[in-house]
Every structure is written in structure tokens, then in C-alpha cells.
Specification:
It is a single chain. By secondary structure, the protein is of the alpha+beta class. The protein is globular. Pfam families: Acetyltransf_1. This is N-acetyltransferase domain-containing protein.
């Protein structure tokens, strides 16, 4: 197989992926380059799904809820391969690796020019944390990622606008810890949009023992 990164024929190994939590109806395999020890491709029913390709049925620049198997595979590539390997999280900025979503989670992909350039995921109200026998009392933005080459273009603020539109009558939670980058976006947004200052919450431990805290209050305390 020709490796796009090595630009030559290479030896590869193929691993079947267990993506049952994404409810994919098909065979998904990951192909890695043995010679250079890196990722080459992911296939869905023997078709290569390339996160750098532009898809003609996704030309609208928008956030779109993931529904098709192809889009679920693109989410897997972004969250489990591109993010950890090419935009490695920085712990000092409260960034962390993401586990695969639960079956009940809502996944949104950002489409730009036909390409999937980022995602965010939401845990709906009532989602159970099985280890704690508790449930979320508001929709919670659990993970966020925009590819580095598309950052500083307003897509982070777009996430806030999109999640508000999807849950117009609800308070919105954000999983703790909130990254430094997202906190900057939230600070700018809440400075300009006072009506949301009492609606955005930082959520830890599914709000067990009153763990939810108003993000605006936390930002004001940090500024003192």
C-alpha cells in the first residue's frame, strides 16, 4: 500500500476497530504503516475514509449532527487519531485526551468547504453516570476540538451559538476541566452576552454534591 506520508509503498498492519458505541453498521479497520510506525488510513466496508477529503454532500458550512456511518468514522478519526497525534493536548492548558463517546451522546461535526474540521459532543439531560447512579440535570458540552489550522476563525464561538440554538430553553453545562482556550472564548462571549451569564455552568461529577459552578462567577474570581 502507498503511504501518503511516506510517499512510497510500505508494509502495513490492519486492525479491526470496535466502534459499537458509535452504532456503526459496517466493518471498520485502521491501517498503520509498519515501516514508519504511524497511522495511514481508516476504512469503512473497504472504502478509505479520509478526513482531508472534501465531500460533495457536505458543502454547507455548518455544524451538523452526526448520523451516517461515514460521518461517525470521521468523528473517530478526528477525536482518536488527528487530535492526539497531530494536535497533542497540553495538560498545562487543561487539555486532555478524549475517550469514545457513550451511545446516548450527541455528536456534532463542523463542516467547512466539504471537510470535517472539528467536533463537539453533548451529554443530553438525563444521561446516567453508571458508576455513580446519577444523571445530568442539563445538557453538558463534554468535548470540543477544532483542527489547529482552522483555529482563531470564530469556530469556537460558533460552538456556543450552535449549542444555544439546539437547547434554547436550557442552562448549558461544560465538563470540568474547561481548557484555557475554551475559557477565553467563554469569557469573550459572556462579556458581550450578559443574558447568558446565569446559564453557563462548569460541571464536575454529574453535579454530585453541588459541583456545578457558574462560569461567569469563576471568571470574575480569577480576575481578582
Amino acid at each position: 500500500m502507498i503511504c501518503s506520508r511516506c510517499e512510497k509503498y510500505v508494509r502495513t498492519k490492519t486492525i479491526q476497530l470496535d466502534l459499537r458505541s458509535l452504532n456503526i453498521q459496517g466493518d471498520v479497520h485502521r491501517i498503520d504503516c509498519i515501516d514508519s510506525n504511524h497511522f495511514v488510513a481508516v476504512t469503512l466496508n473497504d472504502e478509505i475514509i479520509n478526513v482531508d477529503d472534501a465531500y460533495c454532500d457536505r458543502l454547507d458550512n455548518e455544524w451538523r449532527e452526526v448520523q451516517t456511518d461515514r460521518d461517525k468514522v470521521l468523528f473517530y478519526i478526528l477525536s482518536q487519531i488527528v487530535y492526539p497525534n497531530f494536535d497533542a493536548p497540553r495538560p498545562e492548558k487543561y487539555e486532555s485526551l478524549y475517550t469514545l463517546v457513550d451511545e446516548s451522546d450527541v455528536i456534532l461535526l463542523r463542516w467547512q468547504g466539504g471537510k470535517a474540521i472539528g467536533f463537539y459532543t453533548v451529554k443530553p439531560i438525563g444521561t446516567e453516570i453508571f458508576s455513580m447512579k446519577e444523571r445530568y440535570i442539563m445538557p453538558v458540552v463534554d468535548s470540543v476540538y477544532i483542527r489547529s489550522e482552522y483555529r482563531n476563525r470564530g469556530f469556537g464561538t460558533g460552538i456556543l451559538s450552535d449549542v444555544i440554538a439546539r437547547f434554547p430553553n436550557e442552562d448549558i453545562g461544560f465538563s470540568k476541566p474547561i481548557s484555557s482556550g475554551m475559557l477565553r472564548i467563554l469569557k469573550t462571549f459572556l462579556t458581550n452576552r450578559k443574558e447568558y451569564r446565569l446559564r453557563f455552568w462548569e460541571i464536575a461529577d454529574c453535579d454530585v454534591n453541588g459541583s456545578q459552578q457558574l462560569i461567569w462567577c469563576n471568571l470574575k474570581r480569577a480576575a481578582l
